[in-house]
Amino acid sequence: MSGLSHHDDDQVDPQEYARMLDLYDSSFRNIAEGEVVKGTVLKVSDTEVVVDVGYKSEGLIPVHEFLDENGQVTVRPGDLVDVLLERTEDRDGYVVLSREKAEKMKIWDEVEKAYAEKKVVIGRVIERIKGGLAVDIGVRAFLPGSQIDVRPVRNLDALRGQELRMRVIKVNKKRGNIVLSRKVLLEEENAEKKKQTLDSLAEGKVLRGVVKNITDYGAFIDLGGIDGLLHITDMSWGRVSHPSELFKVNDEVDVVVLKYDPATERVSLGHKQLMQDPWNDVADRYPVGARVRGKVVSLTDYGAFIELEPGVEGLIHVSEMSWSKRVKHPSKILNQGDAVEAMVLGVDAGARRISLGLKQVEANPWLELAEKYPVGSTITGKVRNLTEFGAFVEVEEGIDGLIHISDMSWSKRLKHPSEMLKKGDTVEAMVLNIDADNQRLSLGLKQLQTDIWDEFFSQHHVGDTVEGKVVRLTNFGAFVELAEGIEGLIHVSEFDEQEGGERLELKVDESYQMKIIKLIPAERKIGLSIRALKSDDYRADWEAYTETTGRPEATLGDHFKFNQ
Known about the structure:
Layout: H1 6-11, H2 14-29, E1 35-44, E2 48-52, E3 59-62, E4 80-87, E5 95-98, H3 99-117, E6 120-129, E7 132-136, E8 140-144, E9 163-172, E10 177-181, H4 183-200, E11 206-214, E12 218-222, E13 227-231, E14 252-261, E15 266-270, H5 282-285, E16 291-299, E17 303-309, E18 312-317, E19 339-348, E20 353-357, H6 365-372, E21 378-386, E22 390-396, E23 399-404, E24 426-435, E25 440-444, H7 452-459, E26 465-474, E27 477-483, E28 486-491, E29 511-520, E30 525-529, H8 531-549, H9 554-563
Helix pairs in contact: 8-9
């Protein structure tokens, strides 16, 4: 028999052998279940990794616990690895080990340390769960929705897959609970940034910030721990309908501090102020009388705003849109977005106003009107409208002439033009006057008729006896119609006197004989007298008397004066 002989056994001290055997066993008893120990990789196969932890038997660990993200094995024989001793022996005699559990235990230790020392941890968002997000920091942890940011986050799903810097605010290893906060860390970082920003903040200073939020009225810019408001009116010299036309969230933008209130920490910012104001030399670029092109950007009841260039707009007033058309609203002529040509009528750079004219780029039909319709010529038109003072007659499209009520009839005293004309009537009228500058055309209706007054004055003389009908009584006399459209006045002093000295009471619609005592053609006035008829009677009687008696005629004048 080779090896140790019975004689050799006899040479070994039984007590020493027992001590050595006990020492060997105690070395394994020092490795407790649930303890993380270091082991040496002995072998790597397709399914498992053999690890020696210094125990009487090796341990087997599934190979998947050593794979990286690409599925590659991360260990080789001879590598030292941390493993968890789950059981000292399974039914096959191997030590039960776990590398994953060892890693997690190490992570828990690091998490507890980070919690105690308020250190930053980095984790990747796994998914959205009730109340917040699940985050992988080596172990699964919970990030409440209220702790994600300093402001509420509406779209939590957008954070999936992102790596976040956070702080552990609660940890319970026994229950396996870890609560994280990104908000706490941001608040601390913002407080430091804010202090630095406020120390250097001053009106007029140019800063670079990040668009934090966009509203209908502007954008909030993060200047570093403090937000400033960039109002929509300070974004561009041009027209901006909504801030989103120029900026998006997370855009970097240069701004200038317009106003800073240290008490309230409110900051007003400007962006357009970093560019030259286009109104500075607008009078040189758009002189009065120049023809310009632009785009209709807005319509109002009173006109259309035309963008000549970004930041420079002019107004075409509704009255400057057409020479002839009656424009009730600019939309009848122009539409938003139309490209138009206009003429510069006025520039007020201080008030940032440019007056434009649309009709001025076309020929003025009123200037041609005098050649087409000279004064004294006859025109034919349709009555478009009646007013208390006259009738508007359309001479041609967009051009109206006015027949004043006083130019409608030589004889009739009209209370309203409707007594002579109706809307829609086609009439002939005479051109009386043309004022092209003020776009006024005066027409006359009666001028095409015979003047019955001229005819009356030519056929009658002072002293003629006529018959007339009383049409109106006043406190100073009676108006008498002598012919259609012809009236005269009997003054109260020319009424006849009855017996007893009482004055004759004239009645309306009653006809009387009377005498013409005054004619004033220039003023179309006729003076009448009933009393003068009695003088004629006395004259006739006196003449008959003198013919028979031979009395001198001179006394007739005395008698006539007496009766007057």
